[in-house]
Design goal:
OB fold (Dihydrolipoamide Acetyltransferase, E2P), Rossmann fold, alpha/beta
Length: about 425
């Protein structure tokens, strides 16, 4: 196949691909490229409004291009990272531009590109990694998915994972045959905030007896992880290793220092006072509990029953009167309004339409929105913002260096919100 081009990469799109234009003017999305790269293309797939392609040859490197640190990034086309070929400065600039573009284009908001709070570590920051399993018997592979592909390559080490997780995986690789069979099996390696290690085996429908082999392999390297098993449709159970809180298994710590900074910013955005605060998509209720400790009337809403139980236990231990509901936000939020403050941390899909309608019809004086997707954040702010509402803050956080994920905090103030 004859390469097409050359094409100059102009910018980075949400999702991480570089964007250029083919000689006929059609926009083309090209993974693993940097702004300013000049490339020839192969495998061009044309659609009516855009095309997708792969790099055939890098003719000239853009200013922000660097050599990837991870051997898997190029050799195995690892899909876990999208931007290891970009400098830290280029990644921060791309996050800012992607968030600003979404707010203007989708949310119809007249805002500049937001600032980005960098993290202290560009590598070795992830406190959790999830490994996939492909194949059976001697053909079994445990590792990560390739970029744009369902296939799995065998992982040796992950450069964005905390070093204790690499040490743990190095110990467990020899015992991978002890993992349960099944295409649905996943292995989560987790470095708990207190310093302990956890192995969570998820999936597999029959009784699993391989936990002792995993614990033994870890012990041979001087490691003592807690080994958990969560069968399909079942509750998590400890199978080997030290005692640990089973409720904590549900919560993954991606980047502890940046998560702490974001948590502090959310708390700082909560105005003083004792009115009602709704903590929606609350997880273990960390924000709501702190707000209650400051004197607010707090209701948390979370669909995960384990998270709700943990929130209730923590509230009781601290003597806080927090109402923790196990429910879908869209099912209960209308009945919980009005509220002076609403904190929302929805999944990537953003607010369900019914929840957005309820918050628009009975707006809080202060809405604090934590988003992991600029497009759904922009859509929801466009739904929610009506005069005299004011977007008081938009700030991004570099939660996932080397990837195209963008974490954003937005604060919407509504001076005419109804009193409770």
């Amino acid at each position: 196949m004859t390469p097409e081009g050359p094409v100059t990469i102009e910018r980075l799109a949400a999702g991480g691909d570089g964007v250029g234009h083919l000689p006929d003017g059609l926009a083309v999305f090209v993974p693993r490229t940097a702004p300013g790269d000049v490339v020839t293309l192969t495998g061009v797939r044309r659609h009516r409004r855009h095309a997708f392609a792969q790099v055939a040859e890098l003719v000239r490197a853009g200013e922000g291009r660097v050599e990837p640190r991870c051997a898997h990034y190029v050799r195995d086309a690892c899909g876990g990272c999208q931007w290891q070929h970009l400098s830290a400065a280029a990644q921060l600039a791309a996050r800012s531009r992607i968030a600003g573009d979404a707010l203007r284009r989708i949310g119809k908001l007249d805002v500049p590109d937001p600032p980005v709070v960098p993290g202290p570590r560009a590598f070795g920051y992830r406190g959790t990694i999830t490994l996939a399993i492909h194949g059976y018997g001697a053909d079994r592979v445990v590792g990560l998915h390739r970029l744009g592909d369902a296939s799995v390559f065998p992982l040796e080490r992950c450069e964005i994972a905390e070093e204790p997780l690499n040490a743990l995986w190095g110990a467990l690789r020899s015992a991978a045959a002890a993992l349960p069979e099944g295409d649905d099996v996943r292995v989560v390696l987790r470095a708990a905030p207190g310093g302990g290690l956890q192995v969570v085996v998820r999936g597999g429908g029959r009784a699993w007896g391989g936990a002792a082999a995993l614990a033994s392999a870890a012990a041979a390297r001087g490691l003592t992880p807690t080994v958990w098993w969560q069968p399909e449709g079942g509750a998590v159970r400890r199978m080997a290793g030290p005692e640990a809180d089973p409720a904590s298994v549900a919560f993954e710590q991606a980047n502890a220092p940046v998560a702490d900074a974001l948590h502090a910013a959310v708390l700082e955005a909560i105005p003083p006072g004792g009115g009602r605060l709704l903590d929606l998509y609350a997880g273990d209720g960390a924000v709501g509990l702190e707000a209650a400790a400051r004197g607010r009337e707090v209701v948390t809403v979370e669909v995960d029953q384990r998270a709700v139980r943990l929130a209730r236990a923590r509230a009781e231990a601290r003597g806080l009167a927090v109402r923790a509901l196990a429910a879908r936000v869209e099912d209960v939020v209308a009945d919980l309004l009005p509220a002076e403050v609403v904190v929302a941390n929805p999944p990537r899909t953003g607010l369900e339409a019914g929840a957005a309608v309820a918050l628009r019809e009975t707006p809080p004086a202060c809405l604090i929105y934590v988003s992991c997707d600029p497009a759904t954040l922009a859509r929801d702010l466009g739904r929610l913002r009506a005069e005299p509402a004011r977007l008081a803050l938009v700030r991004c956080y570099d939660m996932f260096p080397q990837t195209a994920h963008v974490e954003t905090l937005a604060v919407l103030l509504h001076a005419a919100a109804p009193a409770r």
